[in-house]
Amino acid sequence: MTPPSPPPPPAPYIGRFAPSPTGPLHWGSVLAAFGSWLHARHHGGRWLVRIEDLDPPRERPGAASAQLATLARLGLHADGEIVFQSRRHALYRRALDALLDTGFAFPCRCSRTDLAASDGIHRACVAVPDDTLRTRSFRLRVPDAVLGFDDPVHGRFEQELRRDVGDVVLRRADGLWAYQLAVVVDDAAQDITHVVRGADLLDSTPRQIALQQALGLPTPSYLHLPLWRDAEGRKLSKSEGAQAIDEQPPEAVLRRCWLSLGQALEAWPEWQGAEATIAAAAAAFDPAAIPRERPASA
Question: By the 8 A CB rule, do 245 and 46 touch?
Answer without folding.
Answer: no
